[in-house]
Amino acid sequence: xxxxxxxxxxxxxxxxxxTYLEALRWPNGVVCPHCGVxxxxxxxxxxxxxxxxxxxxxxxxxxxxxxxTVFEDSKVPLNKWLMAVHLMCASKxxxxxxxxxxxxxxxxxxxxxxxxxIREAMTGDNSTLLGGPGSSGIVEADETFWGTATDANGKKLxxxxxxxxxxxxxxxxxxxxxxxxxxIPNVNGKTLGAVLKSQISASARLMTDEARAYKTFSxxxxxxxxxxxxxxxxxxxxxxxxxxxxxxxxxxxxxxxxFHSVSEQHLxxxxxxxxxxWNTRQSQGVNDVARMQIALKGIEGKRLTYRG
Length: 308
Prior knowledge:
The chain has helices at 9-12, 14-25, 78-90, 97-104, 108-122, 189-199, 242-259, 267-279, 288-296; strands at 41-43, 54-56, 62-63, 138-146, 167-174, 179-184, 205-209, 223-227, 235-236, 239-240. It is of the alpha+beta class and 308 residues long. It folds into 2 domains: 5-122, no CATH class; 138-265, Nucleotidyltransferase, domain 5 (2-Layer Sandwich), CATH 3.30.420. The longest helix has 18 residues, at 242-259. The chain is globular, with a radius of gyration of 22 Å. The protein starts with 8 loop residues before the first helix and ends in a 12-residue tail after the last helix.
């Protein structure tokens, strides 16, 4: 029988956790976060120095493996941080801060701050265009709605028939590739066009439903093909939006069943979390351990000022 993953040393011991993170973050030698020199630091020894402290021989600055990361200045033991990262990476529909509170033995406030720091580490790089060379060339786009939006004063909008009072998310899914989601203020040609034109290659085949808002910029791509859900059409050859709609099912199950209530202020980070797990899914050859390591490689340069 395989050993339970959370029984491994990096989740149970602070020193083992630090060694694990150092090996992952500095595979080619210790890197000074202040001046960027590789391999030019020495570990501080003696009772006057805390374990895991390094000093750069070039800029003379002291640092540890958590400096410049989302873990910096946290009083939570590093092994609990690694456990939280693993739990969030391995939970297909997310894990709530209340569950982290119980499993890690921290306060709810600390668990909430930890989860948002980890979501920041999960935030992907959107610098490349979807549907470009080397991909399937097909990008599906669709929008979904969640909860109740707020006005400029933070007051929830009056609920009325339709979706005008809800928070709106548009997602782009590259066929057999990655997903990107964006919280937008409303669904119209202007807001959708800004997202799609900045994220999708002009050489891509764009696939959507029959919503009129997509028609205003259809000529910006190699082709714009639609399926008519109003006429019960969900696929026509390889033209479909079933992939992006399947991704919404996971997002909604997490928002409804795991988190229950997500505010407009933080909705984008939750979308980023679900996008991260989608982009590192099992069908892409990524298991839970590898997914956790990918998330840990994203901790650098994304420090939040939350205390925990």
